[in-house]
TrEMBL record:
Organism: Coccomyxa subellipsoidea (strain C-169)
Gene Ontology biological-process annotations: DNA-templated transcription initiation
Record keywords, A-Z: DNA-binding, Sigma factor, Transcription, Transcription regulation
Stored Gene3D superfamilies: RNA Polymerase Primary Sigma Factor (1.10.601.10), Winged helix-like DNA-binding domain superfamily/Winged helix DNA-binding domain (1.10.10.10)
Protein name as annotated: RNA polymerase sigma factor, cyanobacterial RpoD-like family
Ranges where the RNA polymerase sigma-70 domain occurs: 270-296
Length: 329
């Protein structure tokens, strides 16, 4: 745990620069994979550079290094997120170190998938991937708990070596390299991958998955109806922006709108019901509501929510956690 989560958080500008560098690296790695499959053998560094349209090996190495360092920095800057999410799932069948390992695997996927141009904070987006990896591992634990102890110990070693390699090199170790570092055969590593279906250590395609959209074990989503990380991020951003806009109104105006439209608990109320809560007549509630809505239509307020109204989010604006009078009524 020493040194875990010590790096400072990134600014939005830093996230954008780093994520673009990561995306360039992923595109380069995809070309490497495609060429390897096409040729039926591992390609050389110069061949990889050529596949990426780089004639200068020096420039190519620099581009790879920049991408790897960007990925590592995004990982390290968000270790505290993994720590906090993992702590919520303690005493569910996995020890804390395993929860952290699973969470770091989810964070890795989040880094690879993040698109800063969508306007999300990375921590908001990555939270979904971290939680998904941890909860999936917990659900898998019920199936693997009866396996021999020595396999659990070996898998823990594989996970530890894999994460250490990622942290040091900014990329995953291939199965051949990982097997070498752990001191086992590739066949045994493949067996472990199959038995544990481990998203922590392997980026292999899911065999026999019922989810046609899942291209790797780590991306397999147990609930097809679960909101995507993009949808979750949009919803959270909408909630925050709505709170910020309502905060520009008076406390009474904000509270009345929250009660009328069920922004805190999903229950819309009549003018009469809101009047009883605020101890004024229904006509007075109607007047205050109309005045508040007029204020919200002013450009300096309405512009904040414009993108959501025009299709950026189709999610309901209902959420928990408001502090209006009607929240508990």
């Amino acid at each position: 745990m020493q040194g875990f989560g010590q790096q400072s958080l990134l600014t939005a500008a830093e996230e954008k620069v780093l994520s673009k560098a990561v995306q360039r690296l992923i595109a380069m790695e995809a070309k490497q994979t495609e060429a390897t499959q096409r040729l039926g053998r591992p390609i050389t560094e110069r061949e990889w550079a050529a596949e990426c349209g780089q004639s200068s090996i020096h420039a190519f190495r620099k581009a790879v290094k920049v991408g790897q360092e960007a990925r590592t920095r995004m990982m390290k800057s968000n270790e505290r997120l993994v720590f906090h999410v993992a702590r919520r799932y303690m005493n569910r069948g996995l020890d804390f170190q395993d929860l952290l390992a699973e969470g770091m695997s989810g964070l890795w996927r989040g880094v690879e998938k993040f698109d800063a141009d969508r306007g999300f904070k990375f921590s908001t987006y990555a939270h979904w991937w971290v939680r998904q990896a941890i909860t999936r591992a917990i659900s898998e634990q019920g199936r693997v708990v009866r396996l021999p102890v020595h396999l659990h110990e070996l898998m823990a070693k594989v996970t530890k070596v894999d994460l250490e390699y990622q942290s040091e090199h900014g990329r995953r170790a291939g199965n051949e390299k990982l097997a070498e570092l752990v001191g086992i055969s590739q066949e045994k590593l493949a067996m472990l991958s199959k038995v544990y279906m481990a998203p922590t250590s392997f980026n292999a395609p899911v065999g026999g998955s019922m989810d046609p959209g899942a291209d790797t074990v780590g991306e397999t989503i147990a609930d097809d109806n679960e909101a995507s990380p993009e949808e979750v991020a949009v919803r959270l951003n909408l909630h925050q922006d709505m709170d910020n806009v309502l905060a520009t109104l008076s406390e009474r105006e904000s509270g009345i709108l929250r009660c009328r439209y069920g922004l805190d608990d999903g229950r819309q109320r009549t003018l009469e019901e809101v009047g009883q809560i605020f101890k004024v007549t229904r006509e007075r509630i109607r007047q205050i509501e109309a005045k508040a809505i007029l204020k919200l239509r002013q450009p300096d307020r309405s512009s904040i929510l414009y993108d959501y109204v025009n299709g950026a989010s189709t999610q309901s604006v209902t959420w928990r956690g408001g502090r209006s009078k009607c929240h508990s009524s």
